[in-house]
Amino acid sequence: MFKNFLLVHKKTLKFFLRTQSTIYALSSGQGKCGVAVIRVSGASTELALQCLTGLSNPKPRTAILRSIKHPSNHEILDKGLILWFPGPHSFTGEDCCEFHVHGGIAVVNSVLNALGSLPDLRLAEPGEFTRRAFHNGKLDLTEVEGLADLLQAETEIQRKQAFLQTQGALSKLYNKWRGSLIKSVAHIEAHIDFEETETIDEGVLEHIVKEIETMRDEIDKHLNDGRKGELLRNGVKTVILGEPNVGKSSLLNLLCKRPAAIVTPVEGTTRDILEVTLNIEGYPLVLADTAGLRTETDDIVEKEGIIRAKRSYECADLVILVIDSEKYYSWLHNHSSGSTTDYLKFYVEKLGLHDLLNYESNDEIFTKECIIVFNKLDLVENSLNLQNSSQINCLSCKSEDGVPDLVNSISNKLKVLCGEPSAEHPSMNQVRHRQHLSNCLKCLNSSLEKSSNDTVLMAESLRKALRHLGYLVGVTTTEQLLDVIFKDFCIGK
Length: 493
Known about the structure:
The protein has helices spanning 2-20, 45-53, 105-116, 128-135, 141-152, 156-166, 169-194, 204-223, 228-234, 248-256, 300-315, 325-334, 340-350, 403-418, 431-450, 455-473, 479-486, and strands spanning 22-26, 35-41, 64-69, 76-85, 96-102, 121-123, 236-241, 274-280, 283-289, 318-324, 369-375, 392-394. The protein is α/β, with parallel strands linked by helices.
């Protein structure tokens, strides 16, 4: 127990010393560039500014052109713009300044070395500027995560979702629930304390129950959003499936506009999973090419490829099912009464993907979101005579006819899967959010079950629910949780 006490206080002391020091780092990108931004934050920032530029009491948030000198020998290192942000009106909440210097590597290193020569200044750790902003109440945890996503965003819709989160779209929602729950806990505790004296208004408990039921329904709706935010943040996992030599690799190359996959007339060319990440009209698509599926093969390598293809299918959010138009035309010739739906069922069963078929519904054929592609259209002389042709894409990978229509179909599917980010209806995008909200929902349901017979236990369940909402925004937190959240931040942010 004494060891645990020492360990806790050692961590507290280490954190205190770390936050008391003044930090600096290159905040712009590495390598040669026109302008580099070096950021400083902490109690000794003004001293550092004075030592390198001679400025004292500079005008806040005003760009000033100054020579930057080494504090030891007063050699001029560069001439650049200086910005001063006195705390608490800064990104970190502390005194901050920025040196906007020429972006050459030697220039940047000389300024960093000059800052490092000053007492009480040290190089910042990854994400330390943002971490200080969090500890000083400038950002909550959801806004911190939004900032991290904004730095990682590769598509326009990802950027939009991340930016809305940095502006508090999620934290406003979670803090609204948290504020409502704090009131409910306060009222029910007052009800418990004053129940015997009857000095509290009648109907308070009934009102609390209605409030909790409303919140429970809102959280449940928020959780059951089809993982839209998570899919947008991580990319929609999409797998191309079909028989050998049906044109899967050719399709992948067409979509990514480069020869990413090897294409030959030989069946079974693709053995392993080949993944590429694409930007489809602002939505992220993680596209996987797979081995051709068939139930019988003596090739041990091909068998492993088929196993991996099915494993990739199981994890996929979207399936692109590729079909040989010639084979469909031949089947239709031999099955005059058969329909396109009949062939799709026959084809999927032939591939061994029985769980992809929805046997319980006549309207929805597939159990997953699926795009059907009839390839090799250039080899078919007559019309394919497709039923439900609006749901089917016909193309030729050889002539590239029909590719724009396929891209449009993929884009429409991505819009359905990911949604459109908005401040009014923000989507959670972290597994951490889902876990805490699910636990909060369990506690709310537990409190409602106890509302009729034990208000003390009901209050305890509400306090647990409140704790989970606190973990979401960072009111209740641990150093381990913060380490996980900040581990992917870059130095200088």
